[in-house]
Design a protein that fits this description.
The chain is α/β, with parallel strands linked by helices and about 240 residues long. It has ten helices and eight strands. Helix 5 packs across helix 9.
Length: about 240
């Protein structure tokens, strides 16, 4: 792929690190597949301008924690709006909380605020996390409409490259949501702070409350030690 045509899709702080992959044969194969699927009439989500959004909203130099999920939302609303917006669990396109994000926020609310936090905002747009240095990363940047996980293997070369060649510095906590996301940890070396937890979506399927296992408190402790501040996982409302 021509990097000069691609570079505006990501923040400039990622350019040097991601350029070798973008210009590689492995990346060409990914895009050749996506192009062929589109020609066959397959709908790819999220929209093309949002595929790399997590690398646009969170500069590499600002990354404080990485949350790894596996797949973008694979659904579309009755009005024809694609739910996935390019950020892990983000649903800003519909402005309506998906069950997964609702479980995510609910778990945070119980862990950090002792239950119902009426002074906190549960925003369908997770941009407030991305702007604090939380890389909201789906290991598969795309999927086929109505087919969850359809592109997991497709994006594995990119995940391998990212974890082995970009995140070469320790000191960043990684939160892995679910077993499939947890499998990508095999590409990380020298990272002591890896937190595998169940996926919030699984709690929705089981009609139970998502157990965070205390991960957000643990991560905030590490971030404060390293950076002198904590992530505000739920936005405070202006009352």
């Amino acid at each position: 792929m021509d990097f000069e045509k691609f570079k505006d899709k990501i923040h400039e702080s990622w350019h040097e690190k991601l350029r070798p992959f973008i210009e590689s044969e492995a990346c060409d194969k990914i895009y050749a597949f996506l192009k062929a699927e589109s020609k066959r009439g397959k709908v790819i989500v999220p929209q093309s301008q949002d595929v790399w959004r997590c690398f646009k909203e969170t500069p590499l130099t600002d990354v404080k924690v990485v949350i790894v999920g596996m797949c973008p939302y694979h659904t579309m609303t009755r009005k024809g709006d694609i739910v996935a917006d390019g950020l892990l669990m983000g649903c800003s396109n519909t402005k309506y909380l998906q069950p997964t994000l609702e479980q995510f926020y609910g778990g945070i609310e119980r862990e950090l605020y002792g239950g119902l936090a009426l002074d906190r905002n549960k925003d369908p747009d997770v941009l407030h996390l991305a702007k604090q240095g939380v890389l909201m990363f789906n290991a598969a940047l795309t999927t086929e409409l109505n087919k969850a996980g359809a592109h997991q293997e497709l994006w594995e070369p990119f995940v391998k490259y990212l974890f082995e060649n970009v995140f070469q510095f320790s000191g960043i906590p990684f939160i892995f949501l679910g077993k499939d996301a947890g499998k990508t940890a095999k590409h990380l070396t020298g990272f002591d702070w890896q937190f595998p937890v169940s996926h919030p979506a699984s709690a929705s399927y089981k009609n139970t409350e998502w157990d965070t296992e205390g991960v957000f408190g643990k991560v905030n402790t590490l971030i404060k030690q390293n950076n002198g501040f904590e992530i505000e996982w739920l936005q405070k409302l202006d009352l």
